[in-house]
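Long-time lurker, first post. I've been practising inverse folding by hand and with some scripts of my own, and I keep getting stuck on stretches where the structure tokens seem ambiguous. Below is the full token string for one chain I'm working on. Before anyone asks, I'm not after the true native sequence, just a reasonable design that respects the backbone. If someone could post their per-position residues I'd love to compare against what I wrote down in my notebook.
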């Protein structure tokens, strides 16, 4: 996934190095999260209208930085350290 694939103000899900990730671009920085819902392991989707990561399984919601907005999840989506290499997002 390239940084340019994530427009400012948007979230994109995908695979990086075999891990499911949720990437948000604030316009200044990218936030790369592990996209495994901490409730029971489903993958979240970006909700453009509400600007949250939304889990389709039981309704948990996470802010763009991964913190829990609504349960049943109790724990945040963990951030994953990364660097950019020729515009590609690479997990550390
Ligand atoms: Fe995400 Fe249950 S697995 S809310």
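-- Answer (accepted) --
I ran through it position by position. Result:
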């Amino acid at each position: 996934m390239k940084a340019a694939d994530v427009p400012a103000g948007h979230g994109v899900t995908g695979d990086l190095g075999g891990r499911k990730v949720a990437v948000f671009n604030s316009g200044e920085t990218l936030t790369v999260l592990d996209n495994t819902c901490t409730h029971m392991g489903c993958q979240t989707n970006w909700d453009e209208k509400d600007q949250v990561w939304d889990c389709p399984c039981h309704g948990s919601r996470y802010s763009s930085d991964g913190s829990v907005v609504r349960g049943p999840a109790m724990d945040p989506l963990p951030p994953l350290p990364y660097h950019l290499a020729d515009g590609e997002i690479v997990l550390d």
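A couple of notes from the structure itself: The first strand starts at residue 11 and ends at 16. The mean pLDDT is 97. Happy to go over any region you disagree with.
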